Amino acid sequence: MKKTLKILMMTGILMALASGCSQAARKQAKSDPFVEDLIKKMTLEEKVGQMTQITLEVISKRQDDRVVKLDPAKLREAIVKYHVGSILNCGGSANTFENWQEVITAIQDVATKETRLKVPVIYGIDSIHGANYIVGATLFPQNFAISATGNVDLVSQASAITAMETRAAGIPWNFNPVLDMSRNPLWPRFWENYGEDPYISSVMAYAYIRAQQGDDMAVPDKVAACMKHYLGYSFPLTGKDRTPAWIPERMLREIFVPPFAAGARAGVATVMVNSSEINGIPVHSYKYALDDLLRGELGFDGFIVSDWADIDNLFNREKIASSQREAVKIAVMAGVDMSMVPYDYSFYNHLVDLVNKGEVPMSRIDQAVRNILKVKKQLGLFTNAYPDKTARKNFATSEATKVNLQAAQECITLLKNANHVLPLAKDKKVLVTGPTANLLSVLNGGWTITWQGDREDLYPAEKDTVLEAVQKLIGKDQVAYVEGTAFDKDINTAAAVEAARQADVVIACIGEKTYCETPGNINDLTLDEAQLNLVAQLAATGKPVVLVLLEGRPRIIRPVVDQAGAIVMAYLPGMEGGTAIASVLFGDINPSGKLPFTYPKYTGDLTLYDCKNSEKYDPQWGFGHGLSYTTFGYANLKLSQKTIGKAGTVAVSVDVVNTGKIVGKEIVQLYLRDRVRSVTPPQRQLKRFTKIDLKPGETKTVQFELTTEDLSFIGRENTRIVEPGDFDVMVANLKETLTLK
Ligand code: BGC
Q1: Nearest Cα to 14, choosing from 205, 262, 210?
Q2: Global pTM?
Q3: CATH entry 1.10.10.10 includes domain 33-384
């Protein structure tokens, strides 16, 4: 075993992890004279109201598609009688921009004109891949897809547009980014995250949060972000949503904490808690995670909101509390500042009672209210809680659509292209078939217009499905369409096969219908038999088959991989996805995405890319895989020095050349391998990436900088350490040795 050095690492992504400010220091930093003054004036009931969040349904009469109507009596009951400080959600489906402005105005009218202390409400919403609960918003690729672009600038731009469109409607708080890890492909929330790697997720988290919040959240185009679902939500042993995860502390800190540490470093205003449990402890009751780690070590100083009904779930589902009342006490004392109750005033009533009976100290209530009011103040809500009447011009602009199209184009990942089947010539006769060929919902997934994203009737008619986009691009006459099969049941596969015989090439669009959270649970990762059968039969005609995968997780398709000529991973590419896919298939766009997760070959082999040396990594397509219509060569991998000290940096450079005939974009990835260490090393870990574009014949020199901290890991004592020794620095097929002294 090598000698261990404990180091204090104060740079880069891990800085927040290491910054470990003390509890006392945090409390002092938090006090704000305005907020302190307000807290002094508040009654217990007013304080507990601030900690209470209800859903829009509680204060509305009804929701027709696109328009919600508030119930003035219920609105007053919530805000005047119960002093409710926060409201969330959309009432069922996306509402119009104008309706949102009316709703928010009516809510703030009551809060700031009819209450004693005039504290504004903080309205929160899930703007997950754009402002998905506002009709007509710009809806981007989902997180796992935009991560595949390898283009951090696009993530920032999409985030800034999402913030602008959300705030334009009057909503100042977004329950995103989702910083869970896509490490169990069965899990139905796989697509909501940035992939399986903690480094990519940390980079994307930081970029997203900075662009959501800017330097000043009070301006009319920024919102408070909410990183979620802290901590360890994404790795349920069974793959089923909201079921137990077993994650040892070393793995928690190595894999699951870093994106949240990056979020804290970016200054994220709020955190939402993991609905479920880790190691037998529901996270809503986990003081160590919520307070010591998040606030103490990571330096987070915003407020913590529960997930949906999850304080109650400590009693109802998790059975660690013997009553609703006890559940409230446990969660509040563990560090939850606001309860997403969301349907009633039970939390309020119990908490008032708990404080009155001395079971929850007023100091804890003050601390929670302080955290909440501080964010309201940072958002400028005390100065102006109302929607900006002139903000319509910021909503769904043509510039935003342009960014969205680029994001969709850049995420698309070419997995296989035998004999250069792609790009297709535009004069070919094409059959388009399969269950995802002619739906907009399958391009978007959950959190689109509705929670499940499945109300196809509410999707914007002007957007194109894959079929429509192909028809537009090459002319309707060139394109035949036969559905072939539904997701899990044959419709007219025989007719599709017949049509394939008449075509030059087949575009088979397969994948998943939309889902979100628990309704998306599956028992089998293999794609439905009906779809695999469709592909097999199409391929048997001898015509080239191009597979387009539209899916929220990598469903096993091994039986048809050899039969398909080309395979394109389109993920959930968003509203411009159809257009983007068509432009890639026919060569107007050269694909440049790379998988931010492992695409498994077998249901029984879910090994990830950063596996140990004892494991065999044999995926269908590995992490970081993605082809292009051109080719790239790598040469001259150079380190500025061969050794690095306890707190050093080393510059790495590599030449990348476009060796093909067309312009292309390439994600350049740098991996590290620790050859020997006291905790078994991963085979490799991504440490840097960047995206460049190259003309044919052009060479660019890419520069990276590594620091000692990149060589660190969570040691046997569960603290971050480095150990002297040799590391492989790897870019594409090149390798150099770096020695840590
Ligand atoms: C989800 C959260 C979401 C919340 C509010 C919950 O069911 O887990 O991700 O933010 O609902 O819609």
Answers
A1: 262
A2: 0.96
A3: no
